[in-house]
């Protein structure tokens, strides 16, 4: 695809097409000249005619891409004559992008007026792309399966269990930077087998297959007191003395109980001579203690377990005690290589009262999320069991399929459950388990199957939703599913499904979005982690290899890039994004906010004073701070570096791709690494000097002239994200001389002509002069993530509308999300070419 082109190219093409002897002036692009009857609003359509365009273009194009000139490997004569074949539309998209981004003509040449640029863009939209503002193409919708993150969140919402998809399933493929893209979320025979296995595991862990069990009353460690029943709350003691823990609590029902007290011996990772005896006692109503169980503690004995016993509970509060008697307190390790004290510590976890064992009181200890209507009564007949099964299966299938399953499907599942429970040794619960397992293995669970809105309901779609006659709106269940997986990476909850069932989701979309932003913090943070983690690469922070000693040139330092700092870096970026949503702040604050989110370890790593503790919180940055916005977040600086040094190329490319939306093409083959260039006179050269060598090659210059200035602006931040004044030289060894520290020069200039002298100035330029580029880039990234496909020229007008909505609302984050949710690509599916197969089984 063309990477560098200018308005001259458009001029050349049009002039060539006008002047060439072809049957029709626009035969090469299949269009007729048009005149748009609209005024210039800075973003919309403009009045133009061919003569006017020709006069403008003749001053701009022939020197670069016409009259046999083919700069950048592109000539409009070839485009007009069809020599680019099936790449023709891609070439036009490249022209369109360069005009819009103002990357051409070069900044040192005369620039066209904004009105002229908008006329050229409008011409390409209408006459080349053939776009109709009144009928935006919804694009192709590819059937999407749940990715690993979505599958895990869906299972958790359905069952309350945490299913580790990263261990059970292979990694998802990605497309366009995200793992939500339908066309790359393939399903292989191996993955299908894993889905079947997963359904079995989920059922076994989330449904009590053996039926109801006696009630359980659990009292955690904070219910224990030391020395006496009303003594200080304490549940732990080193093996350096004796103590007794007491617990006095009231149970609701008298009767016979099984008492289980869980305990652990902490720090017993090496051999010592420490030993102790622990005894569980039951105190009767008259206060007399009775021994129930005992254990010997020590490295050679027990290091964890349960003290158990059967007890009789009356109407008075129960009183138990756990006596700890130290036999030996010698904490010295017996291993010669570990000449240190390792004091063991006895710790109580909880006390369980299971019962009453001699009554009909019972319940499900697990599975209540699925078996919400409880166990069947003891005298339940088949009709009652079928009715209860239908309630469970219908509710579970609705939430699993994200839409009603249909009567035929429910009838089949109830019949399967009935057949299963009638088998010898089976039960009501095992019948439910079989039905649930089939639901979890169904394509309707694994894939996000969507239905069109009924013809009789299309007219009821509110006017603030974009409309198009080229597709059909999705129904409200599909909209609820798209909305919930977009914002929370999870299925719609019961409230959202109920609103969809009533057909009121679209008319109440603002209320539902507000609820999501303000009431579903956990789901929102989960969705942000998945989107930001891929858009800004923060998913890679925890595993990014960094050689800290080499980065710091083996200088003494008090900084440790441990998991706590890495985790805080990741959260800093995610919390910034979430803050903009929750407070409805302008999105450009991502680039130049004078605040960030820190805890004590990360603040110390950055060299920021006054922040203590491990809790992340919003911190206002001082005026002279060297931190401001995403470009100075440790997460981004680290993932765009090499293990031993910074990478201006990676950092520059990151800004182009993820913040400006103007990526460079792949590097040509056989380009040497920068380290290979640092030879001879360049052996002690700065990174800037080595990059200048790369740019001296014409094959490299076109890309590096765009990337390098952006990346070099961040050179004051090392590969770990710490600020530095100089590029540290390496110490000498094995007879080699030490390399000197190199001064850092962050100055640069964008392709569009804006100059900067620091990362902070670059951030301000991106947030202000290039704000429209950032708006468009973020809108495109978020739309791709939301609809699960890449964007084409057909999505141009939909993105234009999203960006206009952002401008009209001061770039607020919520206005961006609302504009995406009400756009044609998010709300529509293509019209079916043939009669639609009824996937719902109705």
Automatic annotation (TrEMBL):
<dbReference type="InterPro" id="IPR013036">
    <property type="entry name" value="DUF1587"/>
</dbReference>
<feature type="domain" description="Cytochrome C Planctomycete-type">
    <location>
        <begin position="61"/>
        <end position="108"/>
    </location>
</feature>
<dbReference type="Pfam" id="PF07635">
    <property type="entry name" value="PSCyt1"/>
</dbReference>
<dbReference type="GO" id="GO:0009055">
    <property type="term" value="F:electron transfer activity"/>
</dbReference>
<dbReference type="InterPro" id="IPR013039">
    <property type="entry name" value="DUF1588"/>
</dbReference>
<dbReference type="Pfam" id="PF07627">
    <property type="entry name" value="PSCyt3"/>
</dbReference>
<feature type="domain" description="DUF1585">
    <location>
        <begin position="753"/>
        <end position="826"/>
    </location>
</feature>
<dbReference type="Pfam" id="PF07624">
    <property type="entry name" value="PSD2"/>
</dbReference>
<dbReference type="Pfam" id="PF07626">
    <property type="entry name" value="PSD3"/>
</dbReference>
<dbReference type="InterPro" id="IPR013043">
    <property type="entry name" value="DUF1595"/>
</dbReference>
<dbReference type="InterPro" id="IPR011429">
    <property type="entry name" value="Cyt_c_Planctomycete-type"/>
</dbReference>
<dbReference type="InterPro" id="IPR011478">
    <property type="entry name" value="DUF1585"/>
</dbReference>
<dbReference type="GO" id="GO:0020037">
    <property type="term" value="F:heme binding"/>
</dbReference>
<dbReference type="InterPro" id="IPR036909">
    <property type="entry name" value="Cyt_c-like_dom_sf"/>
</dbReference>
<dbReference type="Pfam" id="PF07637">
    <property type="entry name" value="PSD5"/>
</dbReference>
<dbReference type="InterPro" id="IPR013042">
    <property type="entry name" value="DUF1592"/>
</dbReference>
<feature type="domain" description="DUF1595">
    <location>
        <begin position="390"/>
        <end position="450"/>
    </location>
</feature>
<feature type="signal peptide">
    <location>
        <begin position="1"/>
        <end position="27"/>
    </location>
</feature>
<protein>
    <recommendedName>
        <fullName>Planctomycete cytochrome C</fullName>
    </recommendedName>
</protein>
<dbReference type="Pfam" id="PF07631">
    <property type="entry name" value="PSD4"/>
</dbReference>
<feature type="domain" description="DUF1587">
    <location>
        <begin position="144"/>
        <end position="206"/>
    </location>
</feature>
<feature type="domain" description="DUF1588">
    <location>
        <begin position="627"/>
        <end position="726"/>
    </location>
</feature>
<feature type="domain" description="DUF1592">
    <location>
        <begin position="474"/>
        <end position="608"/>
    </location>
</feature>
<keyword id="KW-0732">Signal</keyword>
């Amino acid at each position: 695809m063309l990477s560098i082109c200018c308005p001259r190219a458009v001029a050349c093409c049009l002039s060539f097409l006008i002047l060439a002897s072809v049957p029709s002036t626009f035969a090469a692009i299949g269009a007729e000249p048009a005149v748009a009857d609209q005024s210039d609003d800075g973003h919309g359509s403009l009045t133009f005619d061919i003569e006017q365009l020709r006069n403008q273009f003749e001053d701009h194009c022939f020197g670069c891409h016409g009259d046999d000139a083919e700069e950048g490997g592109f000539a409009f004569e070839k485009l007009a004559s069809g020599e680019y074949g099936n790449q023709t539309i891609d070439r036009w998209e490249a022209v369109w992008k360069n005009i819009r981004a103002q990357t051409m003509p070069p900044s040192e040449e005369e620039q066209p007026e904004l009105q002229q640029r908008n006329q050229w863009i409008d011409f390409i939209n209408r006459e080349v792309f053939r776009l109709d503002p009144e009928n935006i193409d919804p694009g192709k919708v590819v059937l999407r399966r749940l990715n690993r993150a979505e599958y895990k969140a869906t299972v958790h919402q359905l069952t309350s269990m945490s299913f580790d998809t990263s261990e059970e399933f292979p990694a998802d493929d990605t497309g366009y930077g995200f793992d939500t893209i339908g066309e790359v979320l393939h399903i292989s025979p191996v993955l299908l087998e894993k889905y079947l296995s997963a359904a079995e595991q989920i059922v076994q862990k989330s449904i009590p297959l053996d039926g109801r069990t006696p009630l359980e009353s659990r009292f955690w460690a904070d219910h224990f007191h030391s020395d006496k029943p009303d003594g200080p709350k304490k549940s732990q003691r080193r093996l350096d003395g004796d103590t007794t823990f007491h617990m006095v609590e009231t149970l609701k029902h008298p009767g016979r109980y099984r008492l289980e007290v869980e305990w652990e011996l902490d720090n017993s990772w090496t051999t010592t001579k420490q030993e102790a005896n622990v005894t569980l006692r039951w105190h009767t109503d008259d206060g007399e203690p009775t021994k129930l169980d005992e254990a010997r503690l020590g490295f050679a004995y027990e290091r964890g377990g349960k003290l158990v016993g059967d007890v009789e509970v009356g109407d008075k509060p129960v009183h138990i005690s756990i006596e700890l008697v130290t036999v030996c307190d010698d904490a010295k390790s017996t291993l010669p290589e570990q000449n240190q004290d390792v004091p063991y510590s006895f710790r109580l976890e909880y006390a369980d009262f299971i019962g009453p064992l001699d009554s009909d009181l019972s319940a499900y200890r697990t599975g209540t999320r699925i078996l919400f209507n409880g166990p069947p009564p003891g005298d339940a007949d088949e009709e009652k069991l079928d009715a209860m099964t239908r309630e469970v299966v219908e509710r579970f299938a609705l939430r699993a399929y994200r839409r009603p399953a249909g009567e035929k499907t429910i009838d089949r599942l109830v019949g399967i459950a009935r057949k299963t429970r009638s088998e010898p040794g089976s039960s009501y619960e095992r019948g439910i388990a079989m039905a649930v397992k089939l639901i979890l293995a169904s394509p309707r669970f694994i894939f996000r199957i969507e239905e069109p809105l009924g013809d009789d309901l299309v007219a009821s779609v509110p006017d603030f939703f974009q409309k198009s006659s080229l597709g059909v709106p999705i129904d409200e269940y599909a909209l609820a599913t798209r909305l919930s997986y977009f914002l929370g990476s999870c299925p719609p909850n019961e409230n959202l499904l109920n609103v969809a069932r009533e057909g009121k989701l679209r008319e109440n979309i603002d209320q539902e979005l507000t609820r999501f932003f303000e009431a579903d913090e956990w789901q929102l943070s989960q969705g942000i982690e998945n989107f930001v983690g891929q858009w800004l690469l923060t998913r890679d922070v925890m595993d990014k290899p960094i050689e800290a000693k080499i980065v710091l040139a083996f200088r003494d330092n008090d900084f440790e890039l441990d998991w706590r700092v890495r985790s805080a870096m990741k959260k800093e970026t995610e919390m910034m994004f979430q803050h903009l949503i929750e407070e409805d702040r302008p999105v450009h604050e991502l680039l130049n906010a004078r605040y960030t989110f820190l805890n004590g370890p990360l603040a110390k790593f950055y060299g920021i004073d006054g922040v203590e503790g491990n809790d992340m919180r919003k911190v206002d940055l001082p005026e002279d701070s060297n931190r401001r916005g995403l470009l100075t977040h440790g997460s981004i600086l680290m993932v765009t570096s090499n293990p031993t040094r910074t990478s201006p190329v990676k950092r520059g490319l990151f800004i182009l791709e993820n913040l400006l939306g103007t990526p460079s093409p792949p590097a040509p083959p056989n380009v040497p690494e920068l380290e290979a260039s640092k030879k001879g006179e360049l052996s002690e050269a700065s990174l800037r000097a080595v990059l200048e060598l790369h740019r001296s090659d014409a094959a490299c210059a076109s890309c590096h002239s765009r990337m390098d200035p952006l990346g070099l602006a961040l050179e004051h931040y090392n590969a770990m994200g710490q600020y530095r004044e100089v590029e540290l030289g390496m110490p000498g060894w094995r007879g080699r001389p030490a390399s000197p520290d190199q001064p850092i020069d962050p100055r640069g200039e964008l392709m569009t002509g804006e100059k900067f002298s620091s990362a902070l100035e670059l951030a301000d330029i991106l947030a202000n002069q290039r704000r429209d580029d950032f708006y468009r880039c973020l809108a495109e990234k978020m739309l791709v993530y939301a609809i699960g496909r890449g964007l084409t020229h057909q999505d141009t007008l939909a993105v234009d509308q999203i960006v206009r909505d952002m401008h009209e609302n001061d770039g607020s984050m919520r206005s961006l999300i609302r504009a995406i949710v009400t756009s044609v690509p998010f709300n529509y599916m293509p019209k079916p070419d043939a009669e639609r197969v009824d996937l719902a089984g109705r």
